[in-house]
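Justification of resources, computational component.

The compute hours requested in this renewal are based largely on the per-chain cost of generating structure records like the one below. Each record pairs the submitted sequence with a full structure-token output. That output is archived, and it is also reused by downstream analysis tasks.
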Amino acid sequence: MSGDSGPLATVHRWPLRVLVGDYLRAGAGLAVCFPPLLFVEWTLPVVVILGGLSSLFAWLGLRAVARQRAVVRADSRGISRGGRHLAWSNMTRVTARRFGARRRDGGTVEMTLLGTQGRIALDSDISDFVALAGRIFANAREAGIPFDPKTREAFAAIGLRG
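The structure output for this chain reads:
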């Protein structure tokens, strides 16, 4: 990937503005669930409930940090996220799902690319998602990868048909 920096190479990230809610929810959850663990007697129900919830909110916060730091690169050879690279020629399956379609903003599309080199997951909160989805759509069609009905529906919702 590092050698291809021509006009066909694109870089996509999750902007901070779409992650603020995740950070706020994780912080609020930790602020409510963790401090009592420091001041109350540790009984099994307290540890299971408050410890479990604290762990969940910490995980959500770390997931938001990972998304903010993640960089997705797409070029003529394939797509990369972090240390994972999936060549277009090795892509074997693409699935997309649309959630919250009744919302004013049209909802969220989550996409998973599978190939012989692994799996890459994306969602519509990433920058320039429609262009990236268009590139994925075109490469999948060129490779003859069939789409299930839900994937066709999700692509059609962002204007990709065929």
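Residues 72-157 form one domain. The chain has a mean pLDDT of 90.
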